[in-house]
Amino acid sequence: MSAKLKIGWIGLGNMGNPMVKNLVKAGFDVTVYNRNPEKSNTLKESIDVKIVGSPAAMVQDADFIFTMLSDDAALKEVYYGPSGLFSAMAAQKFIGIDMSTVSPDTTREIASGCKEYGIAYLDAPVSGSVKPAEDAQLIIMVGGEEEAYKKAEPILAVLGKSSAYLGSSGSGNIAKLAINLFLGITAQGLAEAVIFAGKNGMAAEQLMPLINAGAVGSALTKLKTDNIVSDNYKPAFALKLLAKDIRLATTNGMDTPVGKCLSTTLEGAVKAGFGDEDMIAVIKYLKQSI
Ligand code: NAP
Fold this sequence. Notes:
single chain, alpha/beta, Rossmann fold, N-(1-d-carboxylethyl)-l-norvaline Dehydrogenase, domain 2, 6-stranded parallel sheet, 9 strands, 52% helix, 13% strand, globular, binds NADP nicotinamide-adenine-dinucleotide phosphate
C-alpha cells in the first residue's frame, strides 16, 4: 500500500494524538479535526498535518477516515452532526475506521448508514493505553467487512503490534468491552489489596514491588505502580471512560457478580468527582468510601 494514502483523523485526545504522530512518521498524508481546535494547532507545531474545521471538510480528500473519540455520543456527533461526515458523504468513498470504545449497537447503526453510501465501516478499538499508543504497541480488534480490513491492515500495522479480524460489525467492540471488564476488575482488586495492606501498616511502596515480582504481577500492576506510590492520578485512561465501558458492557448483558460490584464502584467514583482522574484512582475513592 502506498504511503501517499490520504488519512483523515478525528479526535486528538490522549490516544489520538500519539497515534497520529505514528502515522505521520510512517509517511502518511494526514488531515486532522478536533472539536477543540487548540489540540490540532498544538499538534501541528510538532508534526506535519493539515487541519480542517469540521469532519465534513475532510471527506473530499480522504481514503480512510479514523475516529478516536470519547464515547458513543461523540462518535454520533461526528457522523450525524450538522457538519458531520454524513453531511458530506456523497463527496468521496472513504473507509471509516472507528478506534474508540463504543457500543456494538452504535457501530452497527453507523455501519448501516455508511453502507447506504457504499462506504465500508470498521470497528477497530484498541487495547493498550497512552504509552503503547506512543510506541505503536496497541492491540487492535476489528469487526466489519473483511475486504475493508485487508485494505486497512497496513495502516493498522503502523499503530499497533497486532490487529485481529474478528468478524461482523461490532465484534471488535465486544472483544474490547470484555477486556475492559477484566481490566476494571483487576484495577479494583489491586486497589483493595493496597488498601488492606495499608490498614495493617504496610505502605504501597513495600507492597507493590512484591506484587510486581510474583505471579499476580502484570503489565497493569507495573504500569500503575508509580501512580499508586506517588498518589498521582493524572489520567492516562480516565476513570469516567472505564465507567462508560462497564456501562456499555452492562447494556450488552454483563451481569456477573464481580462485574456488577465493579460497576457500583465506578459509578460511585464518578459521582464522587474522580471521573477525570486516572482509572486507578478507584483506590482514592474506595479509601474514602469504605
Ligand atoms: P480523551 O483524551 O478524553 O479524548 C477524547 C476525544 O474525543 C477528544 O478529541 C475530544 O475532543 C473528542 N470528543 C469528545 N466529545 C466530542 C464531541 N461531541 N464531538 C467531537 N469530538 C468529541 O480520550 P482518550 O483517552 O483519547 O480515549 C479515546 C477513546 O479510546 C475512548 O473511547 C476510550 O475509551 C478509548 N481508549 C482509551 C484508552 C486510554 O488509555 N486512554 C485506551 C484504550 C481505549 P475535545 O478535545 O474537543 O474534547
